[in-house]
Design brief:
Its main location: cytoplasm. The protein is α/β, with parallel strands linked by helices. It is built from nine helices and 15 strands. The structure holds adenosine-5'-triphosphate, 1-O-pyrophosphono-5-O-phosphono-alpha-D-ribofuranose and magnesium ion (MG).
Amino acid sequence: MLRIAVPNKGSLSGPAAEMLHEAGYQQRRESKELRIVDPENEVEFFYLRPRDIAIYVSSGRLDIGITGRDLLIDSGADAEEILPLGFARSTFRFAAKPGTANGIEDLKGKTVATSYEGIVAGHLADSGVDASVVHLDGAVETAIELGVAEVIADVVETGTSLRNAGLEVFGEPIMKSEAIVVRRTGADAEEPKVQQFLRRLQGVLVARTYVMMDYDCRVEQLEKAVALTPGLESPTVSPLHNEGWVAVRAMVPAKEAQRIMDDLYSIGARAILTTAIHACRL
Ligand SMILES: Nc1ncnc2c1ncn2[C@@H]1O[C@H](COP(=O)(O)OP(=O)(O)OP(=O)(O)O)[C@@H](O)[C@H]1O
Ligand SMILES: O=P(O)(O)OC[C@H]1O[C@H](OP(=O)(O)OP(=O)(O)O)[C@H](O)[C@@H]1O
Ligand SMILES: [Mg+2]
């Protein structure tokens, strides 16, 4: 049975459970459940704090985990990213009152408050900057107002929390993060049960980002049309009853579907349809 760590709280937990559900796995019905077994799929899910997941996975007691890239790096655990999942996207940045600092070099001798001490201390050391780091559990934006630090380093998504605290980001982004699947460093990623789990999640990612497009076009326009809709392998082309016409079917990125439909129409394609993909194995 594959043992999988899933975030029990915070920004990662809802979207992670939704993705696992879409991938056909049972999920807990009640937010206090700590573990569930899904016997049909031969997996067991452990609901853990997102920050602890890489540590459990690195111990080898759990096979796989879903966490944030920033949390993995912050933990320093012996685990590696094997699949990015495209949700809980954020950047990790320094911020301060306007006019305090323009770049990391201005942090010398200052105090930085953060919940991600591992990332910040590592980044300061790599940059050769000598600054103190104070660890806070959350709501670090308030640390400056209350005099605990001159600078903070925190997760930024929309920037609303920083604006509300009267703070501004400065310097280069320290890192970009999103939800990821982690595995113990050096563990056999080719293991069939692990591969099957990853294929299911990849299927969800593809179903979310692609649509199926069907259209009819004249044989003379086929090469131009196929250049617009190359598909993943190659489009399916079938003859129509009307001679000189073909039907084409290909997967296209959902974000580009409307533009591609306009372009196909302008080269003479007709009966252009898109349909959602519910599940897929590439
Ligand atoms: N506002 C946000 N937008 C996108 N991702 C976020 C946001 N806040 C946190 N994250 C991401 O979520 C992960 C942190 O999860 P965690 O549950 O520890 O914190 P949280 O979502 O801030 O929840 P809480 O602080 O309430 O416990 C990190 O990978 C981080 O990048
Ligand atoms: O750029 P934004 O869209 O405002 O999002 C970023 C904020 O979201 C998270 O905070 P959360 O609400 O989880 O509170 P916390 O600081 O206690 O973790 C994060 O720590 C930032 O404060
Ligand atoms: Mg938070």
